[in-house]
Amino acid sequence: MANSRKKQILLTSRIGIAVNLFLGALKVVFAILSGSLALLSDAVNNITDSSSSLITIVGTKLASRDATPNHPFGFGRVEYLSSMIIGIIVSMTGIETFISSIKNILAPTEVKYSVVTMIIIVATMAAKIVLGVYTENTGRKLDSDALVASGKDAKNDALISLVTLISAVIYLVFNISVDEWASAVISFFIIKTGIEILKDTLSKILGEKADDELAAGILKLIKESNIEGIGSPHDLVINNYGPDMRMGSVNVELDAGKTVEEVYPLIRKLQMRIYEEFKTMLVIGFYAVNSKDQVTISVARNLSDLIRDNKYIDGFHGIFVDKDNMHIMFDITIQFGCDRKALCEQIVEGLRKKFPYYEISANIDSVFARGEYSV
After folding, report:
1. For residue 112, what pLDDT is reported?
2. What digits encode the pLDDT tens for the residues 48-93?
3. What is the pLDDT of residues 342-362, one digit of tens each?
4. Which of 15, 47, 112, 320 is deepest in the core (most CB within 10 A)?
5. pTM score
6. Rg, the chain, Cα only
7. Cβ distance 56 to 13 under 8 Å?
8. 240-254: b or e for each residue (b if 16 or more CB lie within 10 Å)?
9. Domain boundaries, the chain
10. What is the mean pLDDT of the segment spanning 32-58?
């Protein structure tokens, strides 16, 4: 599967290089003939796109290297670095285009558009729309940020060509040259695309919450697994080491009456089902829960009353009542943006009034994957 993905990414990137080099060369020729800075800026952007596809090829090959003792999770994150480099190149191209536009606004040159030039612009605009849609869709299908970035840039190029076309029409109809201003507008589109690529890529490198669809699918699978003794999942964490390498952990509520010998095959079975369906290896921990115990039921009911209408608390789980040591333990999920420690203590104090003879311990949880309380 990984090898097939690599081949598709490389093929798509090579197609991108060929198309962009052809369009770029064509636009350079007609930009020189017409003296159009906007068309020349468009041509430079096409040639830059070719280098982006080349970086995607290099990044994909590096990312597909086998894991090593020093990098046991593989090199999948190289793909994100490739996207970041593409974002930098696109942004720098936009800045250079803007500087050239300002210089030509201050010292304008004569522009000569023709009907042939306009036909070239329309044809290249159509080609970039087709290439952009194809590349971005392929990137989403293969979970390749670099391809998605290239696809977005290509579709942006179609919009840039439209701006160039409008400036040409204005010149031919009204004999007014807005070419330099059109070039400046184009530069803003290029810079905007570069910043968006950088923002998305840096977010993944820094570490972001799990994809909503992936998290919801895993949580739903666990809840609907119907494996005897395994209850609701909580605390799902997924670490992304590249499109083909996801690892993490999740805790499940487990019947407190189960022995270790009984628990292991259940957990193992669940792990394999998750990996087979979502290609994500999870370490599965558990909360020992006695759902039929009356004290446990009473604790759950009182906690529900205490957190009701509190917008910062998502829920609670993992209630365990140790009657031998008179100890109640549970986890409470509190959102960021408030004094979490004070809010937790407030809930604990409220519960303490209901169970004065018990020691009460609460652990503050965070939501690392959306869907835990809604799936």
Report:
1. 63
2. 777 777 888 888 888 778 778 887 777 778 888 888 888 888 788 7
3. 999 999 999 999 999 999 999
4. 320
5. 0.62
6. 29
7. yes
8. bbbbbbbebebbbbb
9. 2-206, 212-365
10. 74
Rounded CA gap, 331 and 362, in Å?
Answer: 5
* Residue located via tokens 């280098």: 51
Q: If one looks up domain 212-365 in CATH, what number appears?
A: 3.30.70.1350
pLDDT at residue number 191: 86
**CATH number for the segment(s) 2-206:** 1.20.1510.10
CA distances from 23 to 26, 89, 118, 241 (A): 5, 19, 14, 36
Residues 198-245 have pLDDT tens digits of 888 888 777 777 778 888 889 888 888 877 778 888 888 888 877 667
In this structure, which amino acid lies at residue 230? I
What span, in angstroms and rounded, lies between the C-alpha atoms of 262 and 268? 11
